[in-house]
Amino acid sequence: MSQSKKLGILLSGRGSNFEAIADAIESGRLDAEIAIVISNRADAPGLETAKRRGLNTKLIPSRGRVREEHDAEVVAALKEAQADLVCLAGYMRLLSPEFVRAFPHRILNIHPSLLPAFAGLEAQKQAVDYGAKVSGCTVHFVDEHLDHGPIVLQKTVPVLDSDDAHTLSLRILEQEHIGYAEAIQLVLSGAIEVEGRRTVRRTGKAEGK
Ligand code: GRF
Questions:
Q1: Which of 2, 17, 156, 190 is most buried, most CB within 10 Å of its CB?
Q2: Which protein residue's CA is at the shortest distance from atom 9 of ligand 1?
Q3: Which of 70, 111, 140, 177 is catalytic?
Q4: Based on the domain organization, do 5 and 67 belong to the same domain?
């Protein structure tokens, strides 16, 4: 039997996506293990949750640090934990090119909009303010540009007339919690490959569990 692939989770805040990933592993929907949870913020609730769940955690504060130096420390911790795939889960830092190169097509991010619409901060508010009728979330490979790399999957939700940024965020978050684990499973199973900007199903290879 092959060993489960190892995830390195990076977060800066609440950590509900991290929890959804951990829950998917526990319930057997996702064949992986969490090798390490790293936060760049001491006050991230997600870091406490990870400790409570008995996971390997590490705080690597970023405030006032040069990006490349901080990133080098994070990469070293991920390598030490033998992470196969890095999952950004509300990690509020742009990665340096060195970081991205250390894990080629092995870093995922989740963003609460249908990219390329509404990249950056407050994506849900941007969607409401713009008057979008549909929004959702995107799981994508990370490159050195913000919210930019090849898309693994997207989930859509309606934007209702009665929505504000908060109610839309809640509707999108439900889909984030489903979609992130699905995307990780897709990537780890080897069922998709990256062709330029696109990810495509590998032909002749069954989607492994
Ligand atoms: C999510 O909306 C995610 O899409 C975005 O940051 C938020 C993180 O939430 N990148 P949480 O910390 O996972 O609860």
A1: 17
A2: 90
A3: 111
A4: yes
**Residues near ligand 1 (Cβ within 6 A):** 11, 13-17, 46, 89-90, 110-112, 137, 176
pLDDT in tens, 19-35: 999 999 999 999 999 99
The pTM (predicted TM-score) of the whole model is 0.95
Place of tokens 């319930």: 27
Owning domain of residue 26: 1-103
Which residue among 38, 115, 176, 180 has the greatest number of ligand 1 atoms within 8 angstroms of its CB, and so is best to mutate? 176
DSSP label of 127: H
The CA-based angle 44-97-58, given to 5 degrees, is: 30
Domain CATH for 174: 3.40.50.170
Q: Using CB atoms within 10 A of its CB, is residue 15 exposed (0-12), middle (13-18) or buried (19+)?
A: buried
* CA of 209 relative to ligand 1 center, distance in Å: 26
Task: Please indicate, yes or no, whether residues 1 and 63 belong to a single structural domain of this protein.
Answer: yes
Choosing from 72, 103, 134, the residue where a domain stops is: 103
| 42-80 confidence digits (pLDDT tens) | 999 999 999 999 999 999 999 999 999 999 999 999 999
Nearest residue (CA) to ligand 1, atom 14: 16
